[in-house]
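Q&A FORM
Asked by: J.P.
Topic: structure of MULE transposase domain-containing protein

PROVIDED:
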Amino acid sequence: MLCAGPLKKNGKTTAGRTRYRCTHCGASTTPKRATSTRRHELTAFLSWLLGPTSRSHHEHMPARTLRRRTQWCWNVEPPPPAPTGEIHTELFLDGTYFNGWCVLIASTRTHVIDWQFCNREKTASWTALIERLPAPDYAIIDGNGPLTTTITRHWPHTRIQRCLFHIRQDIHKHLTRRPVLGPNKELLALTKALSRVTDQDEAATWTAAFLEWEARHETFLKHRTYAKPGVQPPAHVTATQKWWYTHQRTRRAHRLLAKLIRKQHLFTWIDAATHGTEIARATSVLEGAFNQPIKDMLRRHWG
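REPLIED BY: S.T.
REPLY: Here is the structure written out as tokens.
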């Protein structure tokens, strides 16, 4: 106020805020409370950031005003997750990339319990996250190599379930969705049949079918191509290499499934069910409930 005299209420403004008048000099004012103003600005910022509209379509204030008033909100760091020490039956672990960065997420079926920002998925990044969490009974993962190594090292008693969806994606990467060779067609059919396995008997039948495929095509997997004029070697072949395996993609797909069987990461969910515990067999909960909204938000506010 001009004279710092006592104030008394003097009606309301057209916006509904209480107006005050100085009893000494008659000056009128509408004081602001800093905490209340900051709260409303942060609410408007989060409404824009997490909502589908752009700044120009914000319902409470013009775009420039919103940008000016909420500029400080970008510097607010989210509170770190509070460690509870709770031991979960299952945890979903995955990393998602955006704008050149990666965030590693650990979640249950209902909420995220911890996260770690990094430049890429590597052993050091996963170790920083996993060391903060009590070991769960089961970990559902997408098959990232450093993640598997870190779990084995820090959670030796945690059983791993490989995501069946990601297994199929990896097999498509090696064999394509429409393979031409007969052994590749059979191996892709076996991979698709994984989603129809429901109990231990069917798991044993599937494993036997895979081993039978492996025995029948043992010679096929060992076919070699020798370096000679007119033969273009694959990119992975060195200049001094005299031969290479002809069906390298088939070998990679076979090796992927064989490794999962050997490490018992394929039917962990069935083993858990026999002990009365229901766990997921894919990371769909994490992908759809937590990763996708992050990417949707970035896509809406692109630029």
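FOLLOW-UP: The mean pLDDT is 88.
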